[in-house]
Amino acid sequence: MKTMQKKQPSTAVVLELVGQTPLVDLSNLFSKDKVKVFGKAEWMNPGGSLKDRPVKKMITEAIKSGELTTGKTILDSSSGNAGIAYAMIGCALGYEVTIVLPGNASAERKQRIRAHGAKIIETDPLEGYDEALRHVHRLYNENPEKYWLCNQYENDNNWRAHYEGTATELIDQVPGKITHYVGGVGTGGSLTGIGRKFKEENPNVNIVSIRPEVWPGIEGLKPLGSSEDIVPKIFDETLVDQWIDVTADEARSWCHKLSKTGIFTGQSSGAYLAGVSKVIQALREGVIVTLLNDFGDRYFSAGLWR
Questions:
Q1: Which candidate, 217, 174, 216, places its Cα nearest to that of 198?
Q2: What string of DSSP letters covers 139-186?
Q3: Mean pLDDT per 10-residue run, the chain (306 residues)?
Q4: What residues are labeled active site?
Q5: Fewest 10 Å CB contacts: which of 27, 194, 205, 216?
């Protein structure tokens, strides 16, 4: 009699769950009858954030090209969400993962990264994300044979994931002609990829980037307010038609407003909606799209919901 063997789950399942997230009509949050606002529910990716998209693309393309080989450790810096995606996808594909995080990354993000078996190295939070980026390059330069440095700030497959995926999905999903996209810059991947695709479809679309204050800042977004800030190499600033300053308090306020509708997102999503609220003041009609980047429950320890 043959013994039935338990079938192992396919690692491809995690990869297949990335993308094709639904669209949420947020127009009722704003009092303009002829202006429609839509947010893409990126928290519904398996890692709980937008970052699953570029990380999937960067890792799978590196495997295809032979850059990432068996036995190498995936290495990168992150503010947290990309770190979760690296840890989740890396372990599913059989790779060890090391993530360099600023020490003020939320405890919930660190817990999720460790749950997938990845190693975390923390840098001085007062030095910001840029110090994590500098440290990851020092690690790689000390031992290039051990690591595959993904380098999401310079990796073109970052923005291509959004050009081919996120933007294309939005064009298919949004009813009517998109007039405005409101986003921000972390690595620059989503704004660059979405902005390029939208501009190809409609050169008159307005690409709006929010810009957080330098301190206390907004997790995951670069303020780009100082000459010392490292500007991501993949970020195409020429795509931006308008910059809008947003404070951490404004971002928090919009997170709370959104939570009262049943949608529970993180600080950067609140910042994007704060940006939308400022754009909409000058409009009589239009169709605005933005991203709802991640879950709100990974910000409890950061005090977002106090």
A1: 174
A2: HHHH-TTTEEE--TTT-HHHHHHIIIIIHHHHHHHSSS---EEEE--S
A3: 43 89 97 94 97 98 97 94 97 96 90 97 87 94 97 97 98 97 97 98 97 83 75 96 96 96 96 98 96 93 77
A4: 51
A5: 216
